[in-house]
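**User:** My hope is that you can spare some time for a protein that puzzles me. As I understand it, each token names a local backbone shape. I would be glad if you read both lines and explained how they fit together. The protein I mean follows directly.
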Amino acid sequence: MTDTYEPRQVREEAAVNKNVCVVTESISGLPVGRMCRSWLEEGCTAKDFSPFFPDISRYTLSNLIRQDDGLLHFCFPKLSEQDNLVHAVFTREGGVSGEPFASLNVGASVHDSPALVQQNLARIQACIGAEELVQVNQVHGDDAVVFRKGSAVFAESPCSADALITNVPGRGLMVKLADCQGVILYDPEKNVVGVVHCGWRGNVQNILGKTVRRMEKEFFCRPAALRAAIGPSLGPCCGEFQGHERYFPEEFRRFQVRENFFDLWAVSCSQLMQAGVAKTHIEISGICTRCRTDLFYSYRKEGKTGRFAVAAMLRKP
């Protein structure tokens, strides 16, 4: 299976209908395939693009909290209310990497200069004030690694996983992204944080539900107490999956917005809620990375490109 799909039909239809909204067939009575001029100009940022869960906060870029104190990044409004949590969605700006990785690339496996990647990582670590910045070799699986107080950090040889969980203040957790979702999970009761790399393969394996259960098992977190935030990633406007019948489970059909196009943000919300996370505790950035390559890396749009970072950390007392 390939990860590169060209949603030509959507773009062509949008190009023809620049001044009107287009609503195609409905699924379960909900309008789907909505496109309008604002979507064409700004990317997939409309709150009602695919209204499967209208009660869940779904932002536009202007709704996020913009921070530009030396390194441009965005924060989620609800997560920002948590005094013990530091989090950031970094962009591709503010780093030292050259084209085609310009400039804040954190991916060491994309053939960028390792020295430049380390400089970029150091800038992110300094920005969030972390004593150490922890990452893993992401493999599009469903495993989580837990870092407790006193546990070793794999600084020289990271382990393979797609979710990181810790109860250690000052230890920053980071995932690397270019269309996949970076999902932050935080328990304000137990003061535990998790960061998840969730692509469509992660959705198929339900990595979000499994990470919630891992937090419950390891730290006795109550799923209903968790806060969750889904970062910039492939939106329903560009989420084309040809041949999806072969690898998407039947329950994903509910979130198909038009032929071959799926709302993976809604899939993740559903999986989080099935794991016990309250819908009022979930927020979505609502930003499609393929539409906004001015701010974020997109493997589908660019092919050879970098990886941007989503990071979270428990604040030290």
